[in-house]
Amino acid sequence: MTDHDTAPDDATLARQIGATLGFEIPAPCVAGVAMNTRLLATHLATLRRAPEDGK
Predict the structure, then answer these.
(1) Would you call 25 exposed, middle or buried from its count of C-beta atoms within 10 A (0-12, 13-18, 19+)?
(2) Is 42 a member of any domain?
């Protein structure tokens, strides 16, 4: 999700997350869900790049 040209907009991302979880994300929560999803994706990418021995 680092390529901003192809990244989904907030509403699309929240809709995808809602579909995965099995419920509709309320409109007031869309921006927060999208922001947290992008943040967690960044953390996941960082962890995947970390060396296994922690150094």
Answers:
(1) buried
(2) no
Number of domains in the chain: 1
Model pTM greater than 0.70? yes
* Domain presence at residue 49: no
Backbone angle region of 28, left / alpha / beta, with phi > 0 → left and psi within -120 to 50 → alpha: alpha
Which three-class secondary structure state does DSSP give residue 50? coil
Q: How far apart are CA 23 and CA 27, in angstroms?
A: 12
pLDDT in tens, 5-28: 688 999 999 999 999 999 999 999
Which range of residues forms the domain containing residue 13?
1-32
Token code pair at residue 43: 């953390």
